[in-house]
Amino acid sequence: QVTLKESGPALVKPTQTLTLTCTFSGFSVTTSQMRASWIRQPPGKALEWLARIDWDDDILYNSSLKTRLTISKDTSKNQVVLTMTDMDPADTATYYCVVGFSSSWYFDYWGQGTLVTVSS
Amino acid sequence: QSALTQPPSASGSPGQSVTISCTGTSSDVGAYNYVSWYQHHSGKAPKLMIYEVTKRPSGVPDRFSGSKSGNTASLTVSGLQAEDEADYYCTSYAGNNILYVFGTGTKVTVL
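^ Those are the sequences you sent over. The predicted structure of the assembly is below.
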């Protein structure tokens, strides 16, 4: 059974760096064709794709946020980590970890999401 | 980056059908057959219902179907059941810079 669990701080201050961790079970992050992404949804707004890391370490970023994002994976812990620098109240959102297992453009599984609030 | 447009709400009685539209542009929905749909019950993980416009993952009831015409994709839920009450989101591949664009979401209510 595939599960994804996001973890990280619920509250960060403006200008701080956010670090979110997604822990997977039911598969390995080295599984062929595995693509892990982070997606966020600000309250009352649409979902927004942030970044993706693939099984072969290929990495893609949303071009509008690229300078603030870093995505990486830890194969020993079966985790994917996202860091976002210079946090702003506009970054307040529920952050989701998602995964796909093909070369296509959809997400097979989602985590439940974690709400991050940016406030002083 | 513009979100795909979905109606905020849709409803139907048990057994009826409801269709949700997802309108994009010729750069996303209209350009690729990579539209997917997700069901989200509050507090739970969203679930993949349709991928590549018309395909259903294993385990998804055939009451759920997808289609596309031009820049608009649609999700139809036939034979509505109480458990279908949820939020539904569409997604489309949008090219190299953005990769994925999402719909604004539709709340389906079973009357």
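The radius of gyration of chain A is 14 Å. The first strand of chain A starts at residue 3 and ends at 7.

Shout if you want it in another format.
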